[in-house]
Write a structure and sequence with these properties.
Elements (H helix, E strand, L loop, with lengths): L10 H21 L1 H26 L4 H32 L1 H23 L3 H17 L1 H31 L1 H12 L4 H39 L5 H12 L4 H17 L3 H26 L7 H15 L1 H20 L4 H7 L13 H17 L4
Helix pairs in contact: 2-3, 2-6, 2-8, 3-6, 7-8, 8-9, 8-11, 8-13, 9-10, 10-11, 12-13, 13-14
Length: about 375
């Protein structure tokens, strides 16, 4: 008689094992970020440019040469964008001393106001500021060490990512075949479906994200030029880059715009900038994101915010950018596995929008035409 080896664990034991496994998994992601991050970035970029490589291969171009051409074109675009930002940043750096003086004047005014409002002497406030600066300076060695370590990791990722992209694209057929063999012949259709949809989600999301970045950057630059703000091009591009980070990026960008307006213009320009950025965010959230990005990644707002915070906690700023596409892929996998479908539902967004703006101009035009016709039908005595 064969004895069953299946052991049914109670709920608390399953929960404990799940939490332990989650802790180990997150620890591995955090400890191995210098190895994992370049691979994840390379995989996402490789998936996004693979259609171009496939097109060139169909044109009888050697696969390695096709990948090399695509990487060179992508590198030229990135270098051009960096040169544009550097040229604008150089103008900003030249005006930095004047900005520092203006900021010091504003700080003095703020100290005088706080002294009168709080009933604290200016000397006490200055002493507190001096002590705070001293504490920051004493801790600067640790901060510099962390910064150098982070920069070394970033530089390593910059040099390793193109190599990973080339290898992933070159061995793409081999990796796809490995996935099919790993899950067996019986699951071939499911594996193909998941791989195809993952590729579609990542490609659509990145294309939509780039389109959103370009549109928001143009709107930022035009709005800041209308307000005659200095460094409009630099601020517009930086604001569009920050806007890529869901929810939190917009708040940071608005604070940056307001700070520059406070230093370079009169205080009333803070209100102008806030109104401008609010209008741009309204257009972005109600028209650009639903039409271009929202249809590609259907995650609810709560999960999106949590994913961004968790990504930042594990991988810092790179994790904030990766959080949404990775969460979308996780949702896709959860939706395809029967016991995990409730978790996929949890990540998704089935609720109607909080605010829905429907501008039906066609109805207004028809009503106007009917009124004009009725006026024409009236004959004067």
């Amino acid at each position: 008689m064969e004895m069953s080896t299946l052991i049914k664990l109670p709920f608390y034991a399953k929960t404990a094992l799940l939490l332990i496994g989650l802790y180990v998994f997150v620890s591995i992601l955090s400890i191995g970020q210098d190895i994992i991050l370049p691979l994840v970035y390379a995989a996402i970029i490789a998936i996004s440019v693979s259609p171009v490589v496939s097109f060139l291969v169909k044109k009888k171009i050697n696969r390695a040469i096709a990948i090399f051409i695509v990487l060179i074109l992508a590198l030229m675009f990135i270098v051009g964008l960096i040169l544009l930002l550097v040229s604008q940043a150089s103008m900003f750096s030249q005006a930095w001393p004047q900005l520092v003086l203006k900021f010091d004047d504003l700080c003095d005014q703020a100290i005088n106001w706080a002294s009168g409002w709080l009933g604290v002497s200016i000397r006490q406030i200055n002493t507190w500021i001096t002590d705070t600066k001293a504490d920051l300076w004493n801790n600067s060695n640790a901060v510099i060490g962390i910064t150098l370590t982070t920069m070394s990791g970033v530089l390593a990722a910059i040099f390793l990512t193109p190599v990973y992209i080339f290898m992933i694209l070159f061995y793409q057929p081999h990796l796809v075949e490995f996935a099919h063999r790993l899950f067996g012949v019986a699951n071939n259709s499911q594996v193909s479906e998941i791989l195809t949809e993952t590729k579609t989600i990542i490609q659509g999301y990145l294309v939509g994200l780039f389109a959103e970045f370009a549109i928001v950057a143009v709107l930022n630059i035009l709005g800041l030029l209308v307000l005659r703000m200095e460094y409009a091009i630099l601020l517009g591009i930086v604001g569009a880059l920050l806007n890529v980070i869901p929810y939190l990026g917009g708040i940071i960008a608005m604070g940056l715009f307001a700070a520059i307006a406070l230093v370079t213009k009169s205080p009333i320009y803070i209100a102008y900038v806030i109104v401008l950025y609010s209008v741009i965010q309204f257009i972005d959230n109600n028209y650009i994101v639903p039409k271009i990005v929202g249809s590609k990644v259907k995650l609810n707002a709560l999960i999106s915010i949590v994913a961004v915070i968790v990504g930042a906690a594990i991988w810092g700023i790179p994790g904030m950018f990766l959080s949404i596409p990775l969460t979308a892929v996780i949702k896709l996998i959860l939706d395809r596995i029967e016991p995990w479908k409730p978790w996929g539902f949890l990540l998704g967004d089935t609720m109607p929008p909080l605010v829905k703006l429907d501008l039906n101009f066609s109805g207004i035009v028809k009503k106007t035409k009917r009124k004009e016709k009725s006026v024409k039908d009236v004959t004067l005595p």
